[in-house]
Amino acid sequence: MGSAHFAAILLCVCIIAGGAIADSQNGTNGVSRPAEVRIGALFTFDSVIGRAAKPAIELAVADVNADPTVLPGTKLSLLMQDTNCSGFVGTIEALQLLAKDVIAVLGPQSSAIAHIISHAANKLQVPLISFAASDPTLSSLEYPYFVRATQSDYYQMSAVASIISQYQWREVIAIYVDDDYGRGGITALGDALAKKMSKIAYKAKLPPGAGRTAIQDMLMQVNEMESRVYVVHVNPDSGMTVFSAAKSLGMMSSGYVWIATDWLSAVIDSSGHVASDATENTQGVIMLHQHVADSGIQQSLLPKLNSLTRKGNRSSFSSYTAHAYDSVWLVAHAVEQFLSAGNAVSFSANQNLQAIKGSSLQLDSLRVLNNGDKLLEKVLQANFTGVSGQVQFTLDRNLIHPAYDILNIGGTGFRTIGYWSNFSGLSVAAPENLHSVPLNSTTNDIQLHSVIWPGQTAEKPRGWVFPYHGKLLRIGVPLRTSYNEFVMQDDGPDGVKGFSVDVFKSAISLLPYPVGCTFVLFGDGLKNPSYSDLVQKVSENYFDAAIGDISIVTNRTRLVDFTQPYTESGLIIVAPARETESNAWAFLKPFTFQMWCVLGLLFLFVGTVVWILEHRTNTEFRGTPRQQIMTVCWCLAFQPCFSHTERTLLAHLADLCSLCGSLLCSLLTQATRQA
């Protein structure tokens, strides 16, 4: 019995030990790790972005397989499909890639293909990790399995709007390719400019793959418009034609402003030869570049990339290189956590596709990734430091800390004039140095470094000119039925006249350039129009401006801007001025003739009273009648001037009479006014 019990116990220990060893090999929950997991890559191999991404993806897969801490015992296999710059071919290639049971797809490169394939990815529960598709609309809740491993154009257009606002330009012309990538970016630009009180004056769209002739026709059209600020948002593979055509038309000279999104920096980064041609045709252009901070990881990656080059073509490092490399590691970390959580890599048939009968497309080969939502969750929970910086996602599936370098092309290269980030806005300090600094710190200076503009000038371009066939300004004028002195209808060339019209003409005559305008009457002429409605018409751009006796009130200031008042506030009377001739008797005009007669009679009455009282006791009031009359007049006229001398009864009586006379004059004056 002792030996039997010992053997049974030993057998149990061996079974438990064997189970433990099996668990350590299979992973948690007893689910064995697969020997191989497949990921796909979908992009155009022979393109500016593709040439930068392909060696980075291949190198990243090799580094993952060589790292024993990531996916131990599991090989990461890469399947790449070439979309050939075609939306149709790219869609077919994507479906073929999904049919090969890949657990994730790196790409697609094109935003147009991403919109289509995202619907398939939603049903098959396969995450799409794109290192190049920047259309902001891809962050919609409609595409939950699309994860952007690069910066969204939503942030890039915010950076462009900040630059335009920095130089106080109010209107721009957007040149873009008419596809999902171009339309999404320009829509985001319009929204960003609206926040800065600016706008897109005209959208010049180009068909995908437009030839030089179509581009020249478009440029000649926009060259006749008012704005001279151009924002170019096109594909990197054909975008240089825009600048070469603009240079041939003389549009790269002084007075023009060109702002290019990050497609231009991708072209310049692609190779030395292309960069030489690019900088020659883009002198003075401001371009954006996705910010990638220098790090040891980046420096160690460059020699490995150079070793993968073919036929002596040196591979340059760009932001797309960094994002493509980090995308592979993002998938590797997510799959490692997915397997460590006890999930198995398995696929099942899609019931909707199985229900399709009689199709020769073999759609039943598209299978659903079981627990694909859990793999997506692990992808979105990523948090590691890659070549491009911190790889971590926001709630809308975009990378945190979006930032751009602002570059100015000049000579044989370019220089950094500043940075933009969603944390600090424009700054001359690198974004990574500002995350730990308060926003009100002096370290964050929004003033960019000096720019060499097209035409080799350092003076900021005005940003607009008078168009060859531009429309005249529409000036709204209220058609009043009263107080026509301010504005009124006239038979002259302008159709209106008045004080407000004269002030407006005098103001625009002081401008250093001519301003064409036409006056448009507002109202039916039967009653005074509503000034609030007139202001509303200005805010709706029906009128470019309005003139007249328009009161500045709070509600109106919320809609439009007012000039400084050119008339004083309060109750005033506007009366015609009459010129009168002055003469020696002008002092008589303050009083009427009747008033002067009353004053004369009063003077004689007081004089008579004084003479009667003083004649008996005062010798100075005696003599000839002429002397007595002169004495009385002298006493009445100059008695106030000698109030400090001897005061007699006459003096006191004279003062009393003067007071009575003043009161009488006041009463008579009031009576005259009432009459």
UniProtKB/TrEMBL annotation:
Location(s) in or outside the cell: Membrane
GO cellular component terms attached to this protein's record: membrane
One matching Pfam family: ANF_receptor
Signal sequence, renumbered to the chain: 1-22
Domain of life, per lineage: Eukaryota
Topology in the lipid bilayer: Multi-pass membrane protein
SUPFAM superfamilies with a match to the protein in the record: Periplasmic binding protein-like I (SSF53822), Periplasmic binding protein-like II (SSF53850)
The entry's keywords: Glycoprotein, Ion channel, Ion transport, Ligand-gated ion channel, Membrane, Receptor, Signal, Transmembrane, Transmembrane helix, Transport
TM regions (residue ranges): 593-613
Domain Ionotropic glutamate receptor C-terminal: 474-658
GO molecular function, one term: ligand-gated monoatomic ion channel activity
PANTHER family cross-referenced by the UniProt entry: OS06G0188250 PROTEIN (PTHR34836), RECEPTOR LIGAND BINDING REGION DOMAIN-CONTAINING PROTEIN (PTHR34836:SF7)
Protein name: Ionotropic glutamate receptor C-terminal domain-containing protein
